[in-house]
Amino acid sequence: MSNTLPTTGYNPVAIAPGASLALDAAAFPFSDADGDSLQKIKIASLPAEGQLLLDGQAVTAQATLLVGDLANLGYQAPAYQPSNPFGTWVQHLTFKVNDGQAWSQDNGTLDFFITPPTSTASNPVWTGDSANPLDDIHKGSGKPDLMIGYGGNDKLTGLGGNDQLFGEDGNDALYGGAGGDYLSGGAGGDTLTGNAGKDALRGGDGSDTLYGGNGKTTKQGAGSGSDALNGGGGNDKLYGGDGSDLLIGGAGSDILDGGKGKDNYGYSADDLGANTQDTVYATAGDRLLFTAPLWDGLHVGSSAAGKIDADHPIAFVPGSGQNPSLLEFDINQDGQFVEKDDFSVKLVGVHHIAVSGDGFVLT
């Protein structure tokens, strides 16, 4: 007798910041034309923030959980802090279901909608429609606004104050206005503009465009009056503007332009993907910075020189000859640079580098 594949669906649930939510089999939509019952699930992807826990232990992606285990499953939401907000108010968990014979063809989605704080006169909170993906347009005030667009292609403007704008799903346009703002695009192709003040911009998934603005705040120490831009996944475009900015393209082939000021371009091991190339429009004094694990694993020079070892597995070759502006990373460690297998950075504006701390200064 043939078996019809089971199907799953979508389940949104609400949870307070920092709270724990107990789950069970009912949290994972299941339907089967043959009348079979749910036997197990497979975790396709985990929420970006917070933790999925089984008997208090973290669950990993691709883990298979029997239906009897689901009563011991729970989600720990991230704790919201205005001084250090998390990336998104909707955390996505995707999964497949199994009827004992086969897995569902499509993934199901369990969305955790994190409840925003109560709106007050001094700290206004505005949210779009979480039930329907509407295109919202909203302007804030001169106070510290918190705006959450949820679904749809939203246009959010913070105006004055230290604002927090979250586009969530959809192709959103976020404008921070004056003040030190935090802008998070979420999923979709978003455009984020920080404008004046020390801003932090996070594109999220999708191909995003980020503009830091002028960042002309009073100097109060290293990094003051500068913007932090993080493209996340996708092929992003990041523009720092004035001030000393931090630009992190993330995964994908990104275009990074710090603008005026001495800017930093940050990289971690997760940012170095095969067949990807970042383009950096740099000026003298800008720096390429690497996280400690990545920097400690780099060997400057050709991997064919025989100097690669377990402690320095990735060869980094500064541009020379016909390509003085190309920085090559032999990430698959095969002793040669091949574009489709490795990662590179194309420098525009400056071509010389020198070691400086955990990275290189451009001259």
TrEMBL record:
Entry-linked InterPro entries:
Hemolysin-typ_Ca-bd_CS, Hemolysn_Ca-bd, RTX_toxin/Mannuronan_C5-epim, Serralysin-like_metalloprot_C
Question: Which locations, inside or outside the cell, does it occupy?
Answer: Secreted
- Predominant location of this chain? secreted
Q: Does the keyword Calcium apply?
A: yes
Q: Does the keyword NADP apply?
A: no
Query: What keywords would UniProt list here?
Result: Calcium, Secreted
One MF term in the entry's GO annotations: calcium ion binding
Q: According to its record, what are the GO cellular component terms? A: extracellular region
Region spans: Disordered: 198-232
Cross-referenced PANTHER family = S-LAYER PROTEIN
Q: What is the designated name of this protein?
A: Hemolysin-type calcium-binding repeat-containing protein
User: Which organism is this entry from?
Assistant: Methylomagnum ishizawai
Task: Tell me the classification of the organism that encodes this protein.
Answer: Bacteria, Pseudomonadati, Pseudomonadota, Gammaproteobacteria, Methylococcales
